[in-house]
Amino acid sequence: MTEGEAPHADLLRGIAANPAAGTAVLRRLLVPAGRPAWPGFGLRPLPADFVDLALDSAERRVRSGVAGNPWLADAHCLRLARDPVDLVALQAVAGRRVRLRPRPLPDEAVELVLLGTFPRETELLTRDEILSEVHTMGVLPNAFRRRMADHPEPELRRQVCPYINALPPAQRAALLADPDPGVRAAAERAVGPRHLTPQEWEEQATSERARYYFYQVSVLPPEVLADALAERDLLPALARNPHLPPEAVRTLAADVDPGVRAVTARHPLLTPELMAQLAADPDPGVRHRLAGHPALTPDLIGLLAADPDPVVAARAAADPAPRDPARGRVLDETTPRESPHGYRRIDFGTVDEPLDAPAVEWYQACAASPLPLLRRAAATCPHLDGPAVRRLAADEDEQVRDLLALHHLGAPPALLLDAYLRHLGERERLRLRPAFPRAGLPVGLARHADHQVRELAAADPEFDGDPEVLLADPHRTVRLAAAANPRLGPERAAELLADPDLREGAAANPQLGEERLHALLDEVLGE
After folding, report:
1. Where does the record place the region Disordered (predicted)?
2. Hey, which residues does 194 pair with through a beta bridge?
3. Which of 517, 521, 510 is nearest to 20 (CA)?
4. What is the pTM of this model?
5. Is residue 219 part of a domain?
């Protein structure tokens, strides 16, 4: 228990986390004295009848604790989306742990919050704040956005318009010709360039962040463009602007900074002359960016496919003419990057597919390609069939195996564990996957330098080492996991309840059983 906590808060948290705590135990935590346990309602699978009880609670914090649970059934998600408190409803569709769900939320739950049609007793957030949270916090998978574009409700079609340029061509055209004038106007604003006036620049470009935004997306007045070309720190932002005049593109393509040239190498207004110039650039990063340009000519594709840099050559060879922009985006996002966390943003238990996704047949063909980059692209498809998954799971390329583990719910347990060891930023998500291995882990994990890896061994009910060693581990999360391990036996678990450092973990040990948990609650709650 930490300083300032309520008495017995650690025991209450442990009891809430105990897999042996069924509805009869958990319902006793719903009283005001059980408040320290309420956040724990989002940290473990809960019995369905207990969830029903908790959602009937008048206490908002109880419902909010349950709302963050990534294992909830669809029916419970719908109840929470109709919660009379807006913060609870938002937590149900946009909470941090909800974003880790192995399966997407039901469409109806998300639609209820996006449409704002369900009456709320409280309005702690404005309508715009709610929409901003849902649209920007990695909640909405792109498959849902594609469905929004065809939804019978005009408001949902309007909300998808900011993403119109990434939608398939048929959906873009439909939104621009939508029968609803509000949808048409939103679509036209999204596809049309924003012409920035000098007055708007003076009033709105008051910070570096604001200038960075305008440099990327706006048609700039000549005097502003001249200043932008002189502001070297923001040249990469300017190089992304699709509305630049040809002379500005030429200037950026010849910039002394290879980082600026690399960004410019994807500019849609590159002429064949500039492409040839960049194909001969001494920096391989520039040539690599150019190798993925959707309008690259067949001659330049062939030239770059023979590039002395293997990464440049692979990117060019993987995407022959005629090029498909959707395929190119997938290849860009699976190309190796400096950061191990550089893969496409993950929304649920799998990496979200692009808005304009290539056909599954292309991914299937990529899975059998001799080119590692194409096999990496295949590994990002969550719809691969069983034979392709098995082939990629045994691939000699480590990145293929890691990408499959991060993207596909059918990835085998061994791949999930390997990805856990290598990809620190995805560990919480990987542990929520149903196939993640929890028992019979390699004994050597208990001696790993990383405490999060030792924690896996400490929680393994088949751990074949000395649990007392892990109970004395220098990191508290490892000690708590060891104290919660059912391999300890009921007597040892009961002994640890007297240890101030370990009793939270001991209270989570299923060896205690419901009778002992009820007795603990009698002591703690004074009932």
Report:
1. 316-347
2. 218
3. 510
4. 0.86
5. yes
